[in-house]
Write a structure and sequence with these properties.
heterodimer, A: 139 residues, alpha+beta, 4-stranded antiparallel beta sheet, 42% strand, B: 251 residues, alpha/beta, Rossmann fold, 8 helices
């Protein structure tokens, strides 16, 4: 009985998270059409001693990329070299997409010290080293 | 009503090949099939409907334009049917789609179904020209690919809609080939689409100019951002992660 209950709770929680993601993604295009900035496609890879954030930034020049870090947030902004016009699509017909903005919450164990970034073929890769874990001996 | 219905808008002539491009890894199939339809002279002959497709209808030049369509191209002797889907299908509809597609293809005299897609490669960023692997079904498929000099996909998993179509072809001993270019998993990949179209030209002799695809690479990536995002959700459901796994029999 308990096992069944736990399983059900897990399933319901998973479903709620999925629904929240779905609703957020539903409104994302509306918000981005207003601001002219869209959230780029990205992935976060846990590569052992480092975290790699890969961001797809087509139509962008290296010089226009801004990477900011404040508190536990990483913000990537980039301007397109020319705006993306989707005039035939009513949602975007009265505005242009001129750039990207990505805001990510970083886990507490990554450090901006020693972070590196590279940009190749429209793909930005930010490597963030993880902080060392110190073991304290209990006497 | 059947799970999947092929609605023919005019008489669909017999064809040697049925080419399939649906949204999957890197949207390779969708990009390649869309470019193919634009490059060669095709006519819209049918569309596919199902409750497994999202309830959307697209408009193009002011007129309804179904999201899953079949175009026909006549290239001298061989006829080509090209099925393209703008939207990913739900995982629960994949098996019935594969069954109905192969059945319909057989009724149209199709000798071989050729699927265009991507196989995710973690090294994609370092590849100027992605390699293309072909997964076939019959002995005739193997010979067909060998003659064209395409590398055969020897070990590994294929997942998603193409896996179901390959399985159905296998069950019916029908020719079926998936041309899979090394691609990004979650970024639209016109470079990989150009590679599969080049391989398609090699195997069928159909000439497709991929230069415009490469020239508009960044524009395509920017425009397909939202479609890629929606497709990712469907890929997660369809067991796409299997493609990173090594089969036990290989160990």
């Amino acid at each position: 009985m308990e096992e069944w209950f736990e399983r059900e709770i897990r399933r319901v929680r998973g479903e709620i998270r999925r629904l929240i993601r779905e609703v957020e993604s539903l409104f994302e295009p509306l918000l981005s059409a207003e601001s002219g900035e869209v959230e780029p496609l990205y992935e976060v890879i846990d590569a052992g001693d480092k975290l790699v954030v890969r961001v797809d930034l087509p139509k962008v020049e290296r010089e226009s990329i801004e990477i900011l870090h404040s508190g536990d947030r990483l913000v990537v902004r980039a301007r397109m070299r020319e705006p993306l016009r989707l005039c035939d699509v009513p949602l975007y017909s009265r505005c242009e997409i001129s750039g990207y903005r990505l805001e990510l919450e970083l886990p507490p164990n990554v450090s901006l010290e020693g972070a590196r970034a590279s940009f190749r073929s429209g793909l930005l890769e930010i490597t963030l080293p993880k902080r060392r874990v110190y073991r304290v001996k209990v006497e | 009503m059947r799970d999947w219905v092929f609605r023919e808008l005019k008489e669909v002539r017999r064809a040697r090949y049925l080419i399939v491009g649906v949204p999957d890894a890197g949207l390779v199939g969708l990009i390649a099939a869309t470019h193919l339809i634009r490059q060669v002279d095709t006519e819209l002959v049918a569309y596919v409907d199902s409750s497994y497709l999202p309830p959307v209808i697209m408009y193009h030049e002011g007129r309804p334009y179904p999201v899953m369509r079949v175009h026909y191209h006549s290239d001298g002797g061989a006829g080509y049917l090209v099925l393209v889907s703008e939207v990913a299908m739900s995982a629960s509809g994949i098996h019935s789609f594969a069954q109905r597609l192969v059945e319909w293809g057989q009724a149209k005299g199709v000798e071989r179904i050729i699927m265009l897609g991507g196989v995710p490669s973690p090294q994609r960023i370092n590849l100027e020209k992605p390699g293309v692997y072909a997964a076939g079904v019959t002995q005739a498929d193997a010979e067909f690919l060998e003659r064209a000099g395409i590398s055969i996909f020897k070990e590994g998993f294929v997942s998603g809609p193409y896996a179901a179509i390959l399985k159905e072809c296998f069950a019916r001993s029908m020719g079926g080939v998936a041309l899979l270019a090394e691609s990004f998993l979650n970024y639209p990949d016109p470079g990989a689409a150009a590679a599969v179209l080049t391989a398609l030209s090699q195997v069928t002799g159909l000439k497709v100019d991929v230069k415009p695809l490469m020239e508009q690479e960044e524009e395509i990536r920017a425009r397909l951002r939202e479609t890629m995002r929606r497709t990712m959700e469907a890929m997660r459901e369809a067991g796409k992660a299997y493609e990173y796994a090594v089969p036990a029999m290989y160990v």
